[in-house]
Amino acid sequence: MNSQALIVDDEPDIRELLEITLGRMKIDTFTAANVTAAKKLLSEKKFDLCLTDMRLPDGNGIELVQYIQKIQPELPVAVLTAFGNMDTAVTALKAGAFDFVSKPVDLERLRGLIDKALKLTSGLSEKEESNSPFQIIGQSPAIKTLQLEIHKFARSQAPVYISGESGSGKELVARLIHQMGPRSEAPFIPVNCGAIPSELMESEFFGHKKGSFTGAVEDKIGLFQAAHGGTLFLDEVADLPLHMQVKLLRAIQEKSIRPIGTQKEISVDIRILSATHKDLAIEVEGGHFRQDLFYRINVIPLSVPPLRDRKEDIPILSEHFIQRLSKEWQLTTPTLTSAAKGALFAYAFPGNVRELENILERALTLCDTNDITAENLQLPATQVAGIDTHSSTHSTSSTNTRASSPPTPSASLPEGQTLETYLTDIEKNIILHALDETRWNRTAAAKNLGMTFRSLRYRLKKLELDDGKGE
Predict the structure, then answer these.
(1) Burial class (CB in 10 A: 0-12, 13-18, 19+), 131
(2) Looking at the chain, which terminus has fewer C-beta neighbours within 10 angstroms, N or C?
(3) What is residue 50's three-state secondary structure?
(4) Could you tell me which of 383, 375, 378 has the C-alpha nearest to residue 347?
(5) What is the pLDDT of residues 98-141, one digit of tens each?
(6) How buried is residue 286: exposed, middle or buried, by Cβ count under 10 Å (0-12/13-18/19+)?
(7) For the segment 304-324, what is each residue's pLDDT rounded down to a tens digit?
């Protein structure tokens, strides 16, 4: 059975163009010249898609979008807007429109929009979160609300601005919005805006042609083209320099980009999701972020709650992380003692879910029994209210009791190395030397290194030294 679409426009030529285009896509069409006729058809038939003009004789497209949101919220509605009128388009998206199309209608872009809309109504893109490799873990009211919002916003093509503290799971939310929407089979391209050098930003986002500047030894596809058909996630968008904000705004408005060294505009079909731990409204007030760009990316605001506001999820999250890490490291899954659970519940978690995962990863390496104690967690005592994290009767291995001062290293690093890579190399060499001395007997090597077998096993996996030798 063919899909059915409702076309609402008072211009006969536009209605005919849309009817022909949809007819060639094997979609049955019904037309209305005004809001009244459209409401009558909506009461008589069930549609899979609605295309409506913004200006109608007895009302406007926004009113129709709002009406459909009340009677049939699952019906995707695309609004036809005047060319360049982004303010109207944003207003339509905020009202609940699935997407918008500028006049004169670009038929290729229209067909792409229709395909995505029909995926929603056919259920092809609707994926259960439980079947996803990315999940929001928790049962708190705050998380249940967030899960409902993700389901709802996944059906739209409007830009979503995700706010929340560092470590609260903003990228995870973005991935779920992408995966549960009609673009799920296309690329999800995340980019940390604060990690790209300012002078390379335009090339990274829009690409360049060979020879367009010194060092451009070959053509490069930018992030916008890489995300074509899918989703571009701009993480830490507040860190974009002002000159790049101007170029980004134009790319979002025009839905096209121009690689460095070319004169030709390239159309891109992407959905923009953005996030930052900063308060963008304050950044706008301070002149650090353009108000017009904020208006474009903040069509749908979505706030991710901090962990301290959903503490009832800490036991579920802890169990999830411990089981996953134990499986990855091929260890017997330990359990949290009552004192450890109390310490976690009392802790403020300034680093949110990411910090909880890191704490449990560290604790898993320190415990040498099947119990993770409060002492293993090594929580800052000043941030744990009323909990003595050292009250456990269990004593950890000698790794924790050695208090000798570390040697003072040289103030300069070898050329081409960071402190992290330098220290990693030292750790690798020490562990490999201990393993060579014991002929890869890991139990003996761990003893010589003053650590538990579990801790050594973790470090071998982390440093990619676990080649299956020995025990």
Answers:
(1) exposed
(2) N
(3) strand
(4) 383
(5) 999 988 888 999 999 999 999 887 765 455 544 556 689 999 99
(6) exposed
(7) 999 999 999 999 999 999 999
